[in-house]
C-alpha cells in the first residue's frame, strides 16, 4: 500500500511538473543571483529529481512487499551479511540528510549552504519561503526516512 502512495505521488508530481514547465522555467528566469548555467540546471535536472525520488521509493517498497520473508531475509543477508536492509540504509541516509539540513539551517551563513532558500524567500516572502524550504529539505526527508525505517522493522 505504501508503495502505491509513493509511486502515485511521484507520477502526480511528474505530471504537474510537465504541465507547469513554462511557469517553472519562468520562475527560474526571474531569479536574481543565479547564473544562466545554474538556472538551466535547476530547470532541467533538479525539478525532475523530486518525482523520480518518489517513484524509486515506491518501487523499493513494492519489491520489498512482494518478496516472501524467507527470500527477503536471504537477500538482505546476501546484500550486507549483517541483517541490514536497503530500507534501513536509505532511511538512515534520508534522516541524516534532514538532520544535517536542520543543523546547517541554524548556522549564521545558512544562505551559503542553501542557494534555493534565498530564492524561496524572495519569491514567497521570508516567512513562507523558510516554511517551504524547511518542509522540503528537512521535514520531508526525515518523514521519508522514518517510513523507510518502519518498513525495515516491520
Task: Walk me through the structure.
The longest helix has 31 residues, at 36-66. The chain is mainly alpha-helical. Helix 5 (86-105) packs antiparallel against helix 8 (126-153). The mean pLDDT is 79. The chain has helices spanning 2-19, 21-30, 36-66, 69-80, 86-105, 110-113, 115-124, 126-153. It is built from 8 helices and no strands. The protein folds into 2 domains: 1-66, no CATH class; 68-154, no CATH class.
DSSP E strands, number: 0
- Radius of gyration over alpha carbons? 18 Å
Question: What's the N-to-C terminus distance?
Answer: 14 Å
Tally of helical segments: 8
Low-pLDDT regions = none
**Helices and strands: which structural class?**
mainly alpha
Outline: globular
Integer count of domains:
2
Mean pLDDT: 79
Outline the biggest β-sheet.
none
Instruction: Name the beta content range.
Output: under 5%
User: How much helix, percentage-wise, in residues?
Assistant: over 70%
Order of helices and strands: HHHHHHHH
Short description:
The protein contains eight helices and no strands. It is mostly helical and 154 residues long.
List keywords for this structure.
single chain; 154 residues; mainly alpha; 2 domains; 8 helices; 86% helix; 0% strand; globular
Please specify the SSE layout and strand pairing.
Blueprint: H1 2-19, H2 21-30, H3 36-66, H4 69-80, H5 86-105, H6 110-113, H7 115-124, H8 126-153
Helix pairs in contact: 1-3, 2-3, 5-8, 7-8
Amino acid at each position: 500500500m505504501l508503495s502505491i502512495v509513493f509511486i502515485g505521488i511521484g507520477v502526480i508530481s511528474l505530471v504537474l511538473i510537465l504541465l507547469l514547465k513554462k511557469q517553472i522555467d519562468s520562475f527560474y528566469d526571474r531569479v536574481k543571483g543565479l547564473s544562466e548555467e545554474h538556472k538551466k540546471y535547476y530547470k532541467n535536472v533538479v525539478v525532475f529529481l523530486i518525482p523520480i525520488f518518489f517513484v524509486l521509493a515506491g518501487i523499493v517498497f513494492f519489491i520489498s512487499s512482494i518478496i516472501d520473508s524467507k527470500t527477503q531475509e536471504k537477500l538482505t543477508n546476501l546484500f550486507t551479511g549483517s541483517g541490514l536492509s536497503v530500507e534501513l540504509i536509505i532511511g538512515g541516509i534520508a534522516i541524516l540528510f534532514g538532520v544535517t539540513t536542520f543543523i546547517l539551517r541554524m548556522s549564521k551563513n545558512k544562505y551559503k549552504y542553501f542557494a534555493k532558500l534565498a530564492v524561496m524567500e524572495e519569491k514567497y516572502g521570508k516567512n513562507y519561503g523558510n516554511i517551504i524550504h524547511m518542509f522540503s529539505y528537512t521535514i520531508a526527508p526525515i518523514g521519508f526516512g522514518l517510513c523507510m525505517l518502519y518498513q525495515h522493522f516491520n
